[in-house]
Amino acid sequence: MKRFALLLAALLAYVGLALGAVNINTATKEELETLEGIGPVKSQAIIDYRTKNGPFKSLEDVKKVDGIGDKTFEKMKADISTSGKTTVKAAAPKSESKAEAKPAAAPAPAAAPAAAPAKKEEPKAAAKDEPKAKKADDKKAADEKKADADKKATDEKKAADKKATDKKADADKQAADKKADADKKAAEKKADADKKAAEKKAAAEKKAADKKAAEDKKLADKKAAEEKKAAEKKAKDDAKKAKDDAGKKAEAKKDDAAKKADEAKKDDAKK
Asked: What's the N-to-C CA distance of the chain in angstroms?
């Protein structure tokens, strides 16, 4: 009865420890390493992530840590929390099994020695299965490690591809900006050259127009001067002719008067 009570107490203590939870926001590196699938590298990655990004808001957020995928999360999610005190779950020794616990809970009577050999065989069977279990665990760990490495390589490739794409986009933008700047300068240079050519042409046309206007004015002034001179000569000639005509008329009138006077004298003499 005493042995049964001790076994029950140990079992309750084991269950209490088994129900423990690791607070991923406050647990130490060593406490994190007690989680299934979490070794020194991943535990440090969890600490680095929460230091850089702040506490995890949900259990799912732990998958944002590099190296922790869905498989690892499924193994550890039952043993983690984002609040409360960390209670490290005690791992039961691999050599223990339900078959080994039964003799302790209900020891065979002394009068039944036939049950004793079974006690010796069960540990041997359990010990025999240990290498297989360890091999399976090692394979499982290796598969997880490979999956994590593949995920890391994929993430690194995506990051490298994104970096290359961003670099190319930046180079294309710089080339486009450079071309646009060169085109703008060329357009400004052409516009300036066109403006200078237009101004030069306008100046030449103005000079030619001014020269023609000056020549036309000179010709007009010359023509006006000639017309004025001709008019003055005509007026002078007309005045001279009129004077001459008046003199001739006066002489003719004088001659006519003299002739009439002679005729009157002749008439007087006849009388």
From this structure: 221
Which residue, among 69, 44, 65, 43, has the nearest Cα to 56 in the 3D structure? Answer: 65
> At 81, which helix (H) or strand (E)?
strand 80-81
Which helix H or strand E contains 124, and what residues bound it? Answer: helix 116-270
Is there a domain that residue 155 lies in? no
CA distance 57 to 76: 16
Structure confidence by residue, pLDDT tens digits, 139-191:
776 777 776 677 777 678 877 678 866 788 575 788 657 885 756 885 488 84
**87: region left, alpha or beta (phi > 0 left; psi from -120 to 50 alpha):** beta
- Name the residue range of residue 86's domain: 1-91
pTM of the predicted structure, to 2 decimals: 0.31
CA 143-144-145 angle, to 5 degrees, is 90
Nearest of 106, 99, 91 to residue 123 by alpha carbon: 99
In degrees and rounded to multiples of 5, residue 36 shows phi and psi of -70, 130
Residue 18 belongs to some domain of the structure? yes
The count of structural domains within the chain is 1
Q: Can you give the length of the chain in residues?
A: 271
56, 101 contact by CB (below 8 A): no
